[in-house]
């Protein structure tokens, strides 16, 4: 550049600038054109309805479903208290708290269960030679895409009284009466773990995918025991994967509808069923909307916590 | 036996550290856990008997019965209609969004745009379902428009992020040099896209379309709440039948649905591997 004797005339320079500005404008226009449909449809029909739900949660239920446009925070009061129809007094009612409690209990147990089952699998796959990994990844991903309803139904075929497990055990003669498994918390838990296990395996695998296993050898050479190698090398490496997996399992498990519906027999309600019920035969849309928003708030908190847990990887083990 | 004893002895072999023999066994057990229930369902859908436990004879009678069932045929048609339309729209939208979020220089709001596209994945489906129902019930009243369009719209929204993922992955793996070369040869933006980017991107687009199709075809919760009367999709029909009790016809339909899903996902997997 320095060797160029010719210095552009002022008008040439400004024309260059104008051309650049024009190009930048055009790029912005193209970008806007490309983004508009996606952001538009998800913004209007994905994000905006959440604020409608927020509005609904502060209205009164309509007699035949829907809402009456009268302000009321009854939907939130209803969580903890029952309003007497005759004298309008409030008495403490823990029924809904219990449903929330059961949902959290089940979702967190599911998370731990999938971690215990999923971690070894993720590690095992990452330690395979490349050509075997593809088979395993395919095998783990496939159930994830298979219809959740059908998978839950197949679980039901296995655990019901006259199901596969019971009849097989009875045929061998291990038991004489079927063990009641269906419609228990255990069945729901098994169904949830079964449904969401791939969500745990895949992110942990992703965090181990590029891992150099000779580091383990290095640790071992430095007289680290097996446990130490595990704690100080493998856990820090997989930490973002574990955090992502926990969230990916926790979110759908908390909002599960099909699993408790089929395997819990609609008696062992979880939040998901409670919400759907209010929009169906319960005919209390505001209460359903309030329950959904509380669920979403919890999910957002879980997301933030996991972001921090995943990010603090660098800090801990310096 | 050598393997078993190595579990208790402090390992000396580096390969041992890598392998964690206990994990191998667990992995196969997990695979069994994932596939055994589906296998039972599939195998016994070919059972002549009504039972899902006692095998009598191979038979296709439940498949014949399912295919002759008008309710099943009608709901399958609706499912395919909704899934195909939602797939078409969501794939186009996702392709455009992927181009805007991976090509060109980084701009303010790019990661926010990406996050918004993925928003349907971040929220429990039941929440999306009731929020959509609430919003649509207002829109239905205001506009007076009814019909299956609403259901297709709801499906399109949650299909977008699924179509977006493989398209974006493919696009960020693609070098920009071809597009730069086309631009050097005075190709317009549209020509560059039509003759350079799109053909290279096609495996990603196909993979995205297939995932969107599968996700739409399988949806239960959002459809259950948003669908109007007479808009029963196949999964909703199946759910209704299961609530009433186990029937062999449902086993047959479920097996068909599993078959379709597996075929599509296998194809997607193949398409995505080809890029390497």
From TrEMBL, chain A:
Membrane topology summary: Multi-pass membrane protein
Gene Ontology biological-process entries: transmembrane transport
Major subcellular site: membrane
This protein's GO CC annotations: plasma membrane
CDD domains: TM_PBP2 (cd06261)
InterPro entries registered for this protein in UniProt: MetI-like, MetI-like_sf
Residue ranges occupied by any ABC transmembrane type-1 domain in the UniProt entry: 100-306
Keyword terms, alphabetized: Cell membrane, Membrane, Transmembrane, Transmembrane helix, Transport
Parts of the chain that traverse the membrane: 32-59, 104-126, 135-159, 186-206, 241-259, 287-307
Source organism, top-level taxon: Bacteria
Annotated compartments: Cell membrane
Protein family per UniProt: Belongs to the binding-protein-dependent transport system permease family. CysTW subfamily.
Protein name, entry field: Spermidine/putrescine transport system permease protein PotB
Automatic annotation (TrEMBL), chain B:
Name of this chain's protein: Spermidine/putrescine transport system permease protein PotC
Domain ABC transmembrane type-1: 76-268
Top-rank lineage group of the source organism: Bacteria
Stored SUPFAM superfamilies: MetI-like (SSF161098)
Family: Belongs to the binding-protein-dependent transport system permease family. CysTW subfamily.
Keyword set includes Transmembrane: yes
Organism: Ruegeria atlantica
Compartments reported by the entry: Cell inner membrane; Cell membrane
Annotated GO CC locations: plasma membrane
PANTHER family from the UniProt entry: PUTRESCINE TRANSPORT SYSTEM PERMEASE PROTEIN POTI, SPERMIDINE_PUTRESCINE TRANSPORT SYSTEM PERMEASE PROTEIN POTC
Alphabetized UniProt keyword annotations: Cell inner membrane, Cell membrane, Membrane, Transmembrane, Transmembrane helix, Transport
Gene: ydcV_3
Transmembrane residue ranges: 21-46, 78-100, 121-139, 145-164, 195-215, 252-271
């Amino acid at each position: 550049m320095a060797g160029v004797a010719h210095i552009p005339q002022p008008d040439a320079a400004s024309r260059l600038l104008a051309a650049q500005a024009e190009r930048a404008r055009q790029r912005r226009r193209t970008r806007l054109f490309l983004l508009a449909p996606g952001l538009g449809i998800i913004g209007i029909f994905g994000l905006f309805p959440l604020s409608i739900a927020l509005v609904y949660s502060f209205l009164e239920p309509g007699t035949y479903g829907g809402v009456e446009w009268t302000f009321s925070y009854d939907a939130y009061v209803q969580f903890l208290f029952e309003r007497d129809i005759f004298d309008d007094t409030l008495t403490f009612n823990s029924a809904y708290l219990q449903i929330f409690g059961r949902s959290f209990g089940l979702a967190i147990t599911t998370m731990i269960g999938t971690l215990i089952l999923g971690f070894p699998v993720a590690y095992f796959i990452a330690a395979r030679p490349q050509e075997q990994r593809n088979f395993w990844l395919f095998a783990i991903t496939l159930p994830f895409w298979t219809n959740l309803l059908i998978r839950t139904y197949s679980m039901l075929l296995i655990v019901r009284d006259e199901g596969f497990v019971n009849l097989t055990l009875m045929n061998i003669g291990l038991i004489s009466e079927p063990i009641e498994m269906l419609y228990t918390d255990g069945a729901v838990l098994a169904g949830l773990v079964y449904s969401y296990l791939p969500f745990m395996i895949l992110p942990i695998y992703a965090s181990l995918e590029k891992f150099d296993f000779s580091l383990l050898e290095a640790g071992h050479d430095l007289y680290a025991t097996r446990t130490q190698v595990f704690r100080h090398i493998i856990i820090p490496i997989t930490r973002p994967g574990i955090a992502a997996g926990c969230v990916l399992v926790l979110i759908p498990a908390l909002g599960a509808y099909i699993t408790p519906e089929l395997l819990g027999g609609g008696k062992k309600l979880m939040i998901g069923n409670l919400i759907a019920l209010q929009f169906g035969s319960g005919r209390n849309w505001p209460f359903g909307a309030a329950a959904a928003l509380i669920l979403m708030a919890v999910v957002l908190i879980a997301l933030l916590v996991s972001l921090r847990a995943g990010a603090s990887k660098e800090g801990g083990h310096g | 036996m050598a393997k078993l004893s190595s579990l208790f002895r402090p390992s000396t072999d580096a390969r041992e550290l890598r392998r964690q023999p206990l994990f191998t066994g667990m992995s196969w057990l997990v695979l069994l856990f994932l596939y055994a229930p589906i296998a039972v369902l599939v195998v016994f859908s070919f059972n002549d008997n009504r039972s899902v436990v006692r095998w009598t004879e191979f038979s296709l009678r439940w498949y014949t019965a399912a295919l002759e069932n008008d309710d099943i045929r009608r709901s399958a048609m609706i499912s395919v209609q909704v899934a195909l339309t939602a797939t078409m729209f969501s794939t186009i939208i996702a392709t455009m969004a992927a181009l805007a979020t991976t090509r060109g220089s980084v701009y303010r709001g790019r990661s926010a745009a990406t996050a918004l596209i993925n928003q349907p994945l971040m929220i429990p489906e039941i929440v999306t379902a009731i929020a959509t129902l609430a919003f649509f019930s207002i829109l239905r009243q205001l506009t007076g428009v009814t019909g299956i369009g609403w259901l297709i719209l709801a499906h399109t929204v949650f299909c977008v992020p699924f179509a977006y993922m493989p398209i974006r992955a493919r696009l960020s793996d693609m070098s920009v040099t071809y597009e730069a070369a086309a631009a050097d040869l005075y190709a317009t933006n549209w020509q560059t896209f039509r003759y350079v980017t799109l053909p290279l991107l096609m495996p990603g687009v196909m993979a995205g379309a297939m995932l969107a199709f599968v996700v739409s075809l399988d949806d239960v919760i959002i459809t259950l709440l948003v669908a109007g009367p007479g808009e029963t999709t196949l999964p909703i029909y199946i759910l209704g039948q299961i609530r009433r009790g186990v029937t062999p016809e449902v086993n047959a339909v479920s097996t068909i649905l599993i078959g379709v899903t597996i075929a599509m996902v296998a194809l997607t997997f193949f398409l995505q591997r080809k890029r390497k």
